[in-house]
Write a structure and sequence with these properties.
about 425 residues; alpha+beta; five-stranded mixed sheet; metal-binding; oxidoreductase activity, acting on paired donors, with incorporation or reduction of molecular oxygen; heme binding
Length: about 425
């Protein structure tokens, strides 16, 4: 497995195991220790929602994450997330002044590159854009990476995020690291999705044209978008959701059962396997894989590997999702659902409107890809997206494109 990970398509090593054993949940038993892996939608739903009290982040997971990012709400299992939640109310996330400022800076860089017919690593550019935006939105402090490159009586709308946290708790030791942890998660996940959206716009020019037509219809060629515009731009949300389905920023996640064992519910119907509940030992790691669940043909149909935004507009497809919402969990689900998801949708939508008002074509510049970052030739003989993928998707804490995503932008000629 370790050898295969170096050249395999993202999570394909696990998918091959599921297919070999015709089961969606397996015990790898690595180095004499139970390690449960699952691409089962019912089991993920149990871990995240219906059986939520039976699981937590776990000691080993928290130790690893705290060494890298310190303590904070992403490693906590209690009420601390509720303190941050009010800051992301609609009144805050629909204030687009910050989005406008950093979108303009980013597109100014793109325009300069386009004028010189030069390619750009949009993965790096979007990382800087989202980092600068989130740092000012959350903390009132711009990290300026694009240029390098209270009293509780005060209304929350007048505070920065750090001021809100400071006024909401006296536990300064525990909340001191929240700044960079939330900043990292918000910026990295939003940058990831914008990167893959640009990839799809480049390889599906028909989608780019359809999306641009919707932008011009609702916002015109120059007007800034509003929250009401986003509610009416159905194709915009469809493109974002379809990208999140195929490339969720967090393609895998980990939980650990608590001190008592429990039973996982009967598995979903991906394979005709034993439908009895599964015994989940106490204090045992379970790794669930949203990327595989969101590409599962048993849930999404035979075209599950295809980029088809229309599935989010088609009423029959929507009905399947509404009846089974945990088949799509790019922002997690249950009590730990991402508190910044509306912020992310608004930022991505705002930037895409501004982008498509100025540019109408996007082309991959694969000649700029670093050596060793092109998709391996052996992928073409395999099934799934890897047989036709033009980039190398990889996973660390979040999904990314190996070697960056190099793109040329083309100005719209009015």
């Amino acid at each position: 497995m370790m050898g295969s990970f170096k050249t395999s398509y993202v999570l394909d090593v696990y998918l091959q195991l599921f297919e070999e054993y015709q089961s969606t949940t397996l015990n790898l038993r690595v180095l004499w220790r139970d390690n449960i892996i699952s691409m089962d939608q019912e089991h993920m739903k149990f871990v995240l929602a219906t059986g939520f009290p039976k699981f937590w982040r776990g000691k080993s997971q928290k130790e690893r994450m705290e060494l890298f990012l310190g303590e904070g709400i992403f490693n906590r299992d209690d009420e601390h997330r509720s303190i941050a939640r009010p800051f992301f109310a609609r009144e805050r996330i629909s204030d687009f002044d910050v989005f406008e400022r950093y979108s303009a800076r980013t597109l100014g860089i793109v325009s300069s590159l386009e004028a010189r017919n030069t390619a750009c690593d949009v993965q790096d550019l979007y990382g800087r854009f989202t980092l600068d935006t989130a740092s000012e939105f959350l903390f009132g402090k711009n990290l300026d990476t694009l240029m390098d490159g209270i009293g509780l009586s005060s209304p929350i709308a007048d505070k920065t995020f750090l001021e809100h946290l400071a006024d909401s708790t006296e536990d300064t030791v525990r909340f001191q690291p929240l700044d960079h942890k939330i900043l990292f998660r918000l910026s990295s996940q939003t940058a990831c999705t914008l990167t893959y959206i640009t990839y799809f716009l480049a390889i599906h020019p028909d989608v780019a044209q359809k999306l641009r037509s919707e932008v011009l219809e609702h916002c015109g060629p120059t007007s800034p978008p509003t929250f009401d515009h986003f509610r009416n731009m159905k194709y915009m949300r469809a493109v974002i959701n379809e990208t999140l389905r195929l490339f969720p920023p967090v393609p895998l996640n980990v939980r650990e059962s608590r001190a008592a064992p429990c039973l996982l519910p009967p598995p979903d119907r991906t394979y005709f396997s034993d439908q009895r509940p599964l015994y989940m030992p106490a204090k045992t790691i379970i790794m669930y894989l949203p990327l595989l669940i969101q590409r599962n043909p048993a849930l999404w149909g035979n075209d599950a590997d295809e980029f088809r935004p229309e599935r989010w507009i088609d009423q029959e497809s929507i009905a399947k999702y509404v009846a089974n919402p945990t088949m799509f969990t790019p922002f997690s689900a249950g009590p730990r659902i991402c508190i910044g998801q509306n912020y992310a949708y608004n930022q991505m939508s705002y930037f895409l409107v501004r982008l498509l008002q100025q540019f109408d074509r996007f082309t991959l510049a694969t000649e700029f890809q670093p050596e060793g970052s092109h998709p391996p030739s052996e992928w073409k003989g395999r099934k799934g997206r890897q047989s036709f993928e033009k980039i190398w998707p990889s996973a660390a804490l979040t999904l990314y494109v190996k070697g960056g995503l190099w793109v040329k932008f083309h100005k719209a000629r009015l």
